[in-house]
């Protein structure tokens, strides 16, 4: 595909630590967290002006799904904006709890395992042509995803069991995946979910739903995670021969690989060979390099993706983690844990190191250890604060998220009931005029403008300072005000 749509959904861990008393249970804390969202949108499942979705399912893992992006940096910016939005909600929840006589601290973690061992996800979405052969997803993409943890894992201290001492693993999610490819619900945790909900023209496209990834704190790790996956998909789509690494048992392989930091653990392929994660990644990387040399780079970060992908594979193969310990989450975090362990004479089973593991994923910009490492120059960034701040309010400029953001912001300014999802745009009073935007690459739609024009009145767009000054979370700030009273509206069709 020349242009691809990407989206990533992140579920956050949530905890409340009470001051001088027990903290709130996570579901109660979640209710506080989403109070401004419900006040704003009358629901705990809303699309917001930047085109993304905020969602609180039953349970207590608030979710943010980025708007559709067709550019990797937009995707990373939108995902990082999600963290800032959650942090803003967290600070407000903390204040509201305090006002209700429940002082304490709200913790929001962008990781995948809570202290009870429950797992929650970071789901990737890739638009692919419907013609992509399913078989190649299992022979090429699945082995790529099973081994991708060595280049994009978030790392984790695994507590001691009867069989093994405490140790450091590549991945947070690996031990929590149960199937290879399946169309079952995401609850059964297939690595690739084939549920057919393309949010696009179903005769042309599929939405590939990848459940296996770890949530990343590091922007550079995200770049290699999404960028390498996109390159592998491009090669599959181009019909490029990529060898066959189909695994005999992807689920035992993903666990086995995660727990062996030497990268030398072997797993069996369907045709009886034994391969390591390094073998699989190095082979696909080499193919990708040749593919790019032949076809050219399709975006301006391709070289950076290939370079970092290469260094990550080399770091694991040689054990020289310093090649990536400012850019890849598992290595950034491991370096910190190793230093504290050495300085304090602790072994990996020590509770203090466990706390560091969690605190790395704390999204609080001052308290979170990943952010501290960035400030100390020990972790790289790709995007500046201004870009992240824009992504809180503005949709990515090159996809239909622009249309969604415009529609819902305008409908709000007009004070009319409306519903939207990834594809649909509807005014409650005019259900027959609902507009479906199936093409995720369009950025304007005359039917939407016609529909909005029927509401009469002029809208004035507020500038960033005016949006900041509103008393709601910035992500929920109004984009327009109406400057004239509405003309008597045209009667709806029904
Ligand atoms: N046509 C598309 N192709 C690829 N990704 C898309 C497309 N349309 C939307 N997306 C992305 O897919 C993600 C959908 O997130 P959402 O959480 O709503 O979906 P879901 O996982 O199917 O639903 P749920 O979480 O309720 O199970 C978003 O990140 C969005 O940007
Ligand atoms: Mg989702």
UniProtKB/TrEMBL annotation:
This is Pup--protein ligase. It comes from the Bacteria. The active site is at residue 57. Catalyzes the covalent attachment of the prokaryotic ubiquitin-like protein modifier Pup to the proteasomal substrate proteins, thereby targeting them for proteasomal degradation. This tagging system is termed pupylation. The ligation reaction involves the side-chain carboxylate of the C-terminal glutamate of Pup and the side-chain amino group of a substrate lysine. Its EC number is 6.3.1.19. One of its GO terms (molecular function) is ligase activity. It is an enzyme of class 6 (ligase). Pathway: Protein degradation; proteasomal Pup-dependent pathway; Protein modification; protein pupylation. The lineage of its organism: Bacteria, Bacillati, Actinomycetota, Actinomycetes, Micrococcales. ATP binds at residues 53, 66, 422.
């Amino acid at each position: 595909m020349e242009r691809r749509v990407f989206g990533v959904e992140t579920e956050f861990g949530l905890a409340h630590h009470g001051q001088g008393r027990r903290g709130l249970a996570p579901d109660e804390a979640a209710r506080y967290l989403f109070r401004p969202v419900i006040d704003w949108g009358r629901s705990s499942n809303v699309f917001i002006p930047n085109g993304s979705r905020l969602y609180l399912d039953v349970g207590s893992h608030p979710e943010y799904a980025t708007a559709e992006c067709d550019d990797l940096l937009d995707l990373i910016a939108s995902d990082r904006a999600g963290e800032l939005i959650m942090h803003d909600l967290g600070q407000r929840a903390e204040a509201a709890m305090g006002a209700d006589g429940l002082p304490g601290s709200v913790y929001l973690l962008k990781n995948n395992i809570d202290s009870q061992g429950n797992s929650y996800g970071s789901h990737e979405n890739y638009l692919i042509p419907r013609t992509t052969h399913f078989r190649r997803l299992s022979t090429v993409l699945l082995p790529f995803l099973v081994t991708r943890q060595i280049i994009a894992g978030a790392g984790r201290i695994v507590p001691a069991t009867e069989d093994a001492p405490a140790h450091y693993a590549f991945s947070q999610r690996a031990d929590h995946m149960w199937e290879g490819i399946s169309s079952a619900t995401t609850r059964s945790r297939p690595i690739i979910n084939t549920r057919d909900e393309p949010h696009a023209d179903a005769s042309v496209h599929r939405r590939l739903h990848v459940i296996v990834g770890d949530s990343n704190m590091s922007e550079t790790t995200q770049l290699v995670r999404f960028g390498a996956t996109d390159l592998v998909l491009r090669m599959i789509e181009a019909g490029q021969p990529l060898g066959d690494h189909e695994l005999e048992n992807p689920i035992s392989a993903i666990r086995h690989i995660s727990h062996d930091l030497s990268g030398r653990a072997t797993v069996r392929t369907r045709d009886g060979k034994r391969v390591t994660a390094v073998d699989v990644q190095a082979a696909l990387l080499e193919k990708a390099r040749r593919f790019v040399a032949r076809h050219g780079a399709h975006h301006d970060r391709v070289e950076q993706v290939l370079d970092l992908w290469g260094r990550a594979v080399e770091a694991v193969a040689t054990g020289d983690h310093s090649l990536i310990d400012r850019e890849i989450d598992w290595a950034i975090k491991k370096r910190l844990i190793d230093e504290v362990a050495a300085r304090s004479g602790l072994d990996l089973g020590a509770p203090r190191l466990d706390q560091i593991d969690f605190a790395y994923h704390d999204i609080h910009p001052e308290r979170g250890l990943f952010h501290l490492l960035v400030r100390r120059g020990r972790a790289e960034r790709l995007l500046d604060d201004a870009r992240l701040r824009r992504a809180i309010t503005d949709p990515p400029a090159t996809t239909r998220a622009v249309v969604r953001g415009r529609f819902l912001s305008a409908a709000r300014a007009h004070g009319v009931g409306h519903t939207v999802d990834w594809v649909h745009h509807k005014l409650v009073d005019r259900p027959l005029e609902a507009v479906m935007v199936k093409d995720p690459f369009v950025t304007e739609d005359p039917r939407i403008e016609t529909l909005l024009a029927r509401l009469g009145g002029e809208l004035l767009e507020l500038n960033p300072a005016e949006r900041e000054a509103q008393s709601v979370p910035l992500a929920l700030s109004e984009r327009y005000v109406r400057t004239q009273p509405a003309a008597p509206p045209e009667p709806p069709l029904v």
